[in-house]
Amino acid sequence: MKSPNFTYCRAKSIPEVFELLDYYGEDARILAGGQSLMPTLNMRLSSPTALIDINHISELKNIQEQSLGLSIGALVRHYQVETSEIVAKHTPLLHEALPHVAHSAIRTRGTFGGSLAFADPAAEIPAITLALEGVIHVCSKMGERQIAVQDFFHGLYSTALEHGEIITNVLFPKNTYSHFVFKELTRRQGDYATVGIAIAAEFQGTQLIKIRIIYFGVSDRPIVDMNLAQQLMNDRFEQENILNKAQLAGDDMDISSDIYHDAQIKRHLLKVMVKRALFDLLGKACNGAI
Ligand SMILES: Cc1cc2nc3c(=O)[nH]c(=O)nc-3n(C[C@H](O)[C@H](O)[C@H](O)COP(=O)(O)OP(=O)(O)OC[C@H]3O[C@@H](n4cnc5c(N)ncnc54)[C@H](O)[C@@H]3O)c2cc1C
């Protein structure tokens, strides 16, 4: 099916985006990589009156080391994140996750900001941003604001972004974690996750001192399992404890079904994946590897 008619506008600067958003009002949409937006138009799931193309705004395209951390511009394509040496050095978890985002053709167009703004609950980039405590920088004609990632996702395809605001970049604070694990279960390589896990952890010797455990594909947004994190830190990080504690994964959380799996199966798969992820973490911690 073809998309409904819309007016196409190419913005050459951020102020011009705001002018166009003002002019076309609430029915205008930002067009970044178009990899999620265009299918929704073609399937007639949305019918914006105007698309405002931001692809020619160069200041949104940078990956930069800054004093506070690593900044990734909203228009940085998935393949650029995947192949960036700076990203691999500063945010190895992101580097590990990116090859799992869709297929290479989609990764050449899809953008970092687009993935966050679209807020698919089974997408990798929102989950990794949550694991690494990224800060989302947005701006509108009223000025700039920074949104901590834990306040950004409001539900299924829903975020803290208000009309007239665009994401400009995401800041990943300097790493306070040394060990990372990424795991996802998909029906086929490149599909959205049935169940996904992202873990960032810090050890002192063999003692686990800090851990963030994120699940995606199991709820209406990526979620943090604080209960399991606390349970793991209360005990020695060793095989038997891990086996027992992995059984607690997601216990106090609402797990949603999707079109292929009901919630009960997802909960079971989550526990299996968490067990595997924690064993991977144990292996990395024992080897002293990142
Ligand atoms: C077949 C297929 C499989 C896919 N599989 C996966 C997958 O496994 N994992 C995954 O994570 N993704 C997957 N994707 C989605 C892909 O990663 C998209 O690129 C991404 O979700 C959206 O990025 P985009 O740049 O294409 O955004 P667009 O499609 O251009 O925009 C998406 C939404 O975000 C808004 N938006 C875009 N940029 C901004 C901005 N800077 N500020 C404010 N709003 C903005 C748009 O207005 C729109 O509402 C898949 C897509 C397809 C078509």
Describe the fold and architecture.
It is a single chain. This protein is of the alpha+beta class and 290 residues long. The protein has three domains: 7-53, Uridine Diphospho-n-acetylenolpyruvylglucosamine Reductase, domain 2, CATH 3.30.43; 58-173, Uridine Diphospho-n-acetylenolpyruvylglucosamine Reductase, domain 3, CATH 3.30.465; 179-287, CO dehydrogenase flavoprotein, C-terminal domain (Enolase-like, domain 1, 2-Layer Sandwich), CATH 3.30.390.50. It contains eleven helices and 14 strands. It has helices spanning 14-24, 37-42, 78-83, 85-90, 92-97, 104-107, 112-118, 124-131, 226-233, 239-246, 263-287; strands at 7-10, 28-31, 50-53, 63-66, 69-73, 135-140, 143-148, 153-155, 158-159, 166-173, 179-185, 195-204, 207-216, 223-224. The strands form four sheets. The chain has a five-stranded antiparallel beta sheet. The chain has a four-stranded antiparallel beta sheet with strand order 11-12-13-14, with helices on both faces. β4 and β5 form a beta hairpin. The protein is globular, with a radius of gyration of 20 Å. The mean pLDDT is 95. The site of flavin-adenine dinucleotide (FAD) has 30 residues, from β2, α2, α7, α8 and β10.
